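Can anyone check this?
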Amino acid sequence: MAHASSSIPLNRQAMLGIALAALAAIGFSTKAILVKLAYASPVDAVTLLALRMAFSVPFFMAAALWSRSNHTTPLAQRDWMAVLALGLIGYYLSSLLDFSGLQYISAGLERLILFLYPTMVVLLSAAIFKRPIGRREIIALALSYAGIALVFMHDASSNQTGIAWGAGLVFASTLTYSVYLVGAGHTIARIGATRFTAYAMMVASVATLLQFALTHPMSALELPTRVYGLGIAMAIFSTVLPVFMLSTGIRLIGSGHTALVGSIGPVATIYMAHLVLGETISGQQIGGSVLVLAGVLAISVKRGGGVQK
């Protein structure tokens, strides 16, 4: 009886972790939809990103204060330097490139390119830590990038201008985020996920607001009310809530399982983009999406059914 009852909390924990990971993936996926809706109004990437950060930063300040009260050990100088560098690379620069790219490409293509980050982490780890790339990884990389090529060719056939430039910007965003992931592991292990995320997001927020202040007049904030509404929604539902749901999901079911659940993100984006933005869904897009998902899952899942941590 004791054994049976002890398995119940474990099952509930797994279900909660899966639910949180799924909601986080959908929340992050909604960001592209909200950005595209905002671009229907006269607003640029820097202003829109500044709105997102301005509405997000109070939540992360509160999280930082809460985390500080629960961590009596102060951060060492190397930890502060890591938070500064990784916050600028992973949350500021990556977000700026992503928002800029979304001015030129569809939400579906953007999410698929961003979803390549596990493959980039493999390549970066191989280059930095001299880790060999096996046949399984090579096949996964080929599948993923062939899928992106299919979806890109579909979008390029629409004769929309700037698609190559937009895809390049989002690819650069994915690369900078992958650099952040490779470098963040040791720092997060030392100072804790919540404290690291809160501080790094505050660094990114300050950098974004400073860039806006230096490059835009205050009149740039004279925007339609709908843009402010979308900025608030982006901050709460596509930034703050997903970040903390993701970290809780990782704590409950592990990073590998969380990554697998997160594979619903590109599918959710493509479906929402079709419903909300009227973006088309073709067989070529579906085929490319399947290839990307198959490639990323092949890298994420270990032989024997396990998952990488």
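Reply from J.R.: I decoded it. Residues 14-300 form one domain.
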